[in-house]
Design a protein that fits this description.
26 strands, single chain, mainly beta, SMP-30, 5-stranded mixed beta sheet, Neuraminidase, 6-blade_b-propeller_TolB-like, zinc, gluconolactonase activity, calcium ion binding, 5-stranded antiparallel beta sheet
């Protein structure tokens, strides 16, 4: 069963076309700063936009970064190409846009193939960080990706799940007891649900939650709202899809970009939805690569911080 696509009013977070991303990903709302952070993967860039001051700050990182989280002190946990890094951000000088960074490796990863990096990721409700790997610019189907868990005491886990092509869609239900994961490679396009043990952080009982072969697009980054519904960006279809906790598609929203990549709830009441996007090869649309802001009529959840100080 499909939901008829609807159109919502939207804004661009930034009007300047020069500030579009090549591959925008990993939007994270920081309530204490009234600011949104996200990354541009090929540019090796972390970006912050302060809504309070209408100001953009950029930080250049040493490797491509797939996703980020924060600890309680505002230090960034960044999943890059060779591992996980603690990144301390320095503010830009007055009138400047570029901030300074101090980067420290906290967990190296042994990849299963060449040209790999971390991709999508976030913290679970207990503050353990999860992220998966993928082959960059794959030639055909290469299921070399793995999903990892990281906490300060146990370090980086052995691969928890393997055989992934393009890992994506990590999210948790409001009570933390259901974990979601997707594979957005064109031949895969599945979203799975798992039972999730709150104490040891182990997912079990893997089952198909949604098959996007039945709908449109590829399941990219995701978020869960306060009602427990799962929102996923349907890459290549220009849609934002919402699934109820039982896997039923109940909303489909048309977006003014062809390749939405990830969504995050934010704003003072967590009722605004920020959507990053990718500039496609070839014809680039008016808003492709921008961060969009929607008012979906529901509230979301705060992204948990990493449980230990980095």
């Amino acid at each position: 069963m499909s939901a008829a696509p609807q159109r919502l009013n939207f804004e661009r977070l930034e009007a300047d076309d020069a500030r579009r991303c090549s591959v925008g990903e990993s939007p994270v709302w920081r309530a204490a700063e009234n600011a949104l952070y996200w990354v541009d993967i090929p540019a090796q860039m972390l970006v912050r936009y302060s809504l309070a001051h209408a100001r953009r700050t950029e930080w250049t990182l040493p490797e491509r970064v797939g996703c980020i989280a924060f600890d309680c002190n505002g230090v960034v946990l960044a999943a890059m190409e060779s591992g996980l890094f603690a990144v301390k951000l320095g503010e830009a000088a007055d009138g400047a846009r570029q901030g300074t960074v101090s980067v420290r490796l906290v967990a190296a990863v042994e990849h299963t193939a060449r040209r790999m990096r971390f991709n999508d990721g976030r913290c679970d409700r207990q503050g353990r960080f999860w992220s998966g790997t993928m082959v960059q610019d794959p030639v055909g189907r290469e299921p070399a990706g793995r999903l990892y868990r990281y906490d300060a005491n146990a370090g980086l886990s052995a691969p928890v799940i393997g055989g992934l092509c393009t890992q994506n869609g990590l999210a948790w239900s409001p009570d933390g007891r259901t974990m979601y994961l997707s594979d957005s490679y064109p031949t895969e396009r599945h979203i799975w649900a798992f039972d999730y043990d709150l104490d040891d952080g182990v997912p079990t009982n893997r089952r198909l939650f949604a098959n996007l072969h039945d709908y449109s697009g590829r399941p990219d980054g995701a978020a869960v709202d306060a009602d427990g519904c799962y929102w996923t960006c349907a890459n290549d279809a220009g849609l934002l899809l919402r699934f109820s906790p039982d896997g039923r598609l109940d909303r489909s929203i048309e977006l003014p970009v062809s390749k939405p990549s990830m969504c995050a709830f934010g704003g003072p009441r967590l009722d605004r939805l920020f959507v990053t996007s990718i500039q496609p090869a070839g014809n680039v649309g008016e808003h492709d690569g921008c961060v969009l802001v929607l008012n979906p009529g529901v509230a979301g959840l705060c992204d948990p911080e990493f449980a230990a100080a980095l």
